[in-house]
Amino acid sequence: MRCAAWKPVAALLSPPTLSCSSPSSAPLLQSVRARPPQGGLVLIPRERVSLLSNCVVRGQHFHDARRVLDETPKRTASAWTAVIAACARGGRHRDGMGAFAEMLAQGGVAPNKFVLAAVLRCCAGLGDVESGRRIHGWMLRNEVRMDGVLCNALLDMYAKCGDYRRTKRAFTAMAETDAVSWNIMIGACLQNGDILGSMQLFDESPMRDTTSWNTIISGLMRNSCPAKALDRLCHMARAGVAFNHYTYSTALALAGVLSLLRLGRQLHGRVLTAATETDAFVRSSLMDMYCKCGAMESAVLIFDRCSHLTGDVNFAWSTMVAGYIQNGREEEALEFFRLMLRQGVAADQFTLTSAVAACANAGMVEQGRQVHGCVEKLGHSIDAPLASAIVDMYAKCGNLDDACRIFNRARTKNVALWTSMLCSYASHGKSRMAIQVFNTMTAEKITPNEVTLVGVLSACSHGWLVTEGDRFFKLMQEEYGIVPSIEHYNCMVDLYGRAGLLDKANNFIMENKIKHEAIVWKTLLSACRVHKDMEHAKLASGNLIHLEQCDAGSYVMMSNMYATHSKWLDTLKLRSSMREKRVWKQPGRSWIHLKNIVHTFVAGDIAHPRSTEIYDYLEKLMERLKELGYTSRTDLVAHDVEEEQRETALKFHSEKLAIAFGIISTPSGTPLRIFKNLRVCVDCHEAIKYVSRATDREIVVRDLYRFHHFNDAKCSCEDFW
Questions:
Q1: pTM (2 decimals)?
Q2: I need a surface site. Which of 62, 93, 373, 543 has the fewest CB within 10 A?
């Protein structure tokens, strides 16, 4: 009997087949009701049963097991049990289901409880609840004796197939339960999002073992309840329950999620005491915990000490690359990625996605192109997550055209990829294009998520599209059922603020009861700076001080507004208040990538090897800009000093130094891409417009909030950012 002749188990177990009145049910009923063959197991040698099982368990091709089975003179329940159970253990669930179907079709042997338990595990592995339900029905109709193992297999099948209602019903119907039964039911509750129910079941469980604790702790973590998970972990430790490798991995993941380095180190000590550090699962969890807690040096020590023991080499390297990115150390992440490739470790798609993200965050377009080339060289298909990362990378590096090209080439587009493209247009000031992407996306029946709506509202904000923004804010709630988060509310405040509707922005904050959120007042204060509205600025700064959320950026904005209005005494008081509260302004930094080297500048920087050339060129350039009509915005200097001193203070801002270096280091006409860690200042923004005309270059500046494309004395933001 060949594999091709196997029938689908759903067909063999369909209700008509199992019906006693149906003529087609005769073979199955005969096989189920038949007496066991004379002699039982003596009809097949035990060695042959063992060989059947080993063929599958040791990973040999299933046809080897089939050959042994075909050569068996008389197939007893033991032979079928060996094959089906081995398939269930070895993850060959479809083969196990096929063997079970053939067993029923052949007749002569009734499935015993071991076969039924194994085939239920196969149903669970496939998520095939319909076949599992039919097998359950057949068991009930034929009054199969349900012992603990079979009951748990049935319970596990329903739980893993996501049928919470039947799982509860099966659990309630059990005459006797053990620790396994309770653990399955607790896990099912957690899978269904029933947090209170799972915790109540756990507390009621009469037999809690290590697996029980692992189930509740990991389940609470998956359901975004890390505080509750930590509480259960502490209870577990106090109860003296033994930790296993899964407990350590879960606990370390919990310490990483909560950034509890001290707890992580305590767990590491217990790992060493228990001598489980060589376990690949635990070791990877240790590295991940240290990465998430910002202790990269400790993560590297674990990696170096255990690299020769690493079971999953790719996962260990991926963890380290992702860890450097999480900690804002993109250059080291890329160096680690290059080292990984040099050592011959094949980069999987997760690692490649992480490397692309590192290039995006640092604005390293050339390195990003290299990683993109690596993806294609390794033959990886650019799936939606990877395409989304590459689109994001090119957009964040200022190459919007390349981002569009990758997006258009993607074969499958999920909501993340559409959102990446939409947000790319929004950050580059292409508001209408962002809205067009949204409309096309919804026309293709892709449902937008919360992030998509943040992107489209941001696009409306940057484009002064108040009517459209109001429409999308209403649409997200009424059409898509998305409850606005603080990000959505802040986009609306920004929308009204940028449009000069400061009263409306303030009313929006009050009407939506979000005045306790500092971010909306910072956004309103920023709009007041643009529109020089001192009244609303005082209101916003007052609320920030009341909330004790007035950071350096807010103080500086308010100080600059006072300076603009020549209110030097108020400026002095504000600066004194900053010193008293130990609030320090983050220094502005600008950088440019040239030939795989990052050149970073701060205002008045003389540390660069070519600083003399940079300053000489900048002096000449500023004179040329004045001839073209540029005038220094000396009113923005927050110090009561002479006009000449104010002009000098503005002349050597970090972005001007980076641009001057870029001009003297690249051929004429080469586009420049500059990155800044803060919002570009008004004077530099004005100066860069004239630089683009004077040098006949496109200059792209990525600041903290958006991209500015300068060309022929114009900026894509239309002087509103």
A1: 0.69
A2: 373
